Structures are given as C-alpha cells and as structure tokens.
Structure prediction request, 207 residues.
Amino acid sequence: MKLAVKNLSNQSVGECDVPDAVFAYPYKEHLIHQVVVAVRAAARAGTHTTKGRRGVRGGGKKPWRQKGTGRARAGSIRSPLWRSGGTVHGPQPRSYELGVSPREKRNALRSALSRKLSDEQITVLDSFELDSPKTKQLAESLRGLGIEGKALLVDDWNNENLGLASRNNPTLKAVDALGVNVYDVVDREHLVFSKAALDRLVEVLSK
Prediction:
C-alpha cells in the first residue's frame, strides 16, 4: 500500500510504502474500546484516601460507663456513628490499571490506524522541520494541508520547535512515534506523521 508524501506547503514530493498488516488491519471496535478504557483508567491517580475509626484522632477513653446513664452504649468517640468519627468502607489508595496485553494494544492500534486511513484522515509529511516555534505559523501550515480541528502530530521528541509550537494550541498534540496510543488516535480527527516517524511506528507494529 502506498501513501502520498507532502511537504508543509502541501506539495506532493513522493510516495511511501506501508504494510497491509498495519494499515489494512480489520476494524475491531470491541478491542479498541477495551484498550481506550484501559488507557483512561491507567491515567487515574488513585491517591484518594479516607480515615477509618483507627485513623481519626481521639477515642482512647470510653465516653461514659456502660450502664446506668440512660444513654446508648458507646465504646469510642471514633465510631463511624459519631460526628468526626471514622469513615466506613471509604476509598483507599489503589491502582486502576486494567490487564491488557501488549499484543492487544498493538492490534487495537493497527485497527484504529487502518480506520483512520480508510477515512482519509492520515497525512504524511517529508519533514516536520519548522523555521521557528510559532504557534500561528504551525496552525497556518496545517490549515494549508486541509487539517482543521483536533490533530495528532507525530515526529521525534527532539523536534523542539514542533513541541513549542503545538503546546499552546489545545487542538494539537505532538508526540514521539513510540508514544502513539489508541486513545490519542481515536480522540483526534487527523493524524499527521513525518515520514521518519511513520517508518519507526510501522517497524514496531510489524513485529
């Protein structure tokens, strides 16, 4: 399968070959959903916590004697029934990560990329080298390529100008080729790859 390669001026400069094993993979919605849920779950901090009756302050002494007061029995002011007492079955620090195998993640990414290609939402550039880290300049270049709305820009972490130019635009996200995940692919309407980044991603997904 061949994809057209353009430059930032929207001029065609050649073609590149991509394997059918990656970009003609069957669309598996259930697998994509499973991985997206796992990605979002893993992003949760899981640091919420509450104090039980043994964690709150006080309560070392029985409030009153067991019998003869006319009041209900009480053993501690830290009881969950009391004001400022402990919390029953409250949230505790935990990990929300779900068990998804590396093979399932790769297959889900292949499926999502294939769907994007069939919807003509993938653009390949010969290079993502920008003259300056100007957000406006990058937005104009993408608009000239017919890309408007949310877009995932895939190149190399060392491309500082791309990172600086995209970080102030909430509709753009720049990632390394090895940082592409299913959630970002599904969440963004357009995918823009540099040819070098596409080759690196294909190398990983072809294994």
Q: What stands out?
A: The radius of gyration is 27 Å.
